[in-house]
Design the sequence.
């Protein structure tokens, strides 16, 4: 019977209501935290994908520059060979 009196005590009822409200607040905070966590994970993933894309573009640019340099060097060598060949031919025609 004392237990029934305990449940009927206005202070106990008030504390139960407060506890229930606090539990709801905690639940909302946890939900907000989970939502923020998901948003941060998505942001992190987006940043990672952007960094990968930037790295890929940079690699392509470097490869293009290397190919251009190689072509330029090849052109220079061929031009030099042609000049040398023309000089030899001119000197053989004069001689």
Sequence:
């Amino acid at each position: 019977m004392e237990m029934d009196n305990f449940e009927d005590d206005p202070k106990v009822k008030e504390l139960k209501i407060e506890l229930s409200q606090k539990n709801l607040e905690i639940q909302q905070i946890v939900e907000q935290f989970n939502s923020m966590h998901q948003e941060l994970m998505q942001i992190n993933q987006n940043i990672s994908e952007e960094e990968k894309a930037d790295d890929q573009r940079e690699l392509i640019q470097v490869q293009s520059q290397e190919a251009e340099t190689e072509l330029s060097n090849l052109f220079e060598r061929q031009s030099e060979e042609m000049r040398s060949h023309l000089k030899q031919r001119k000197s053989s025609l004069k001689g």
Remarks:
- The CA atoms of residues 52 and 58 lie 10 Å apart.
- The chain has a mean pLDDT of 91.
- The helical segments are 2-8, 10-94.
- The two ends are 134 Å apart (CA to CA).
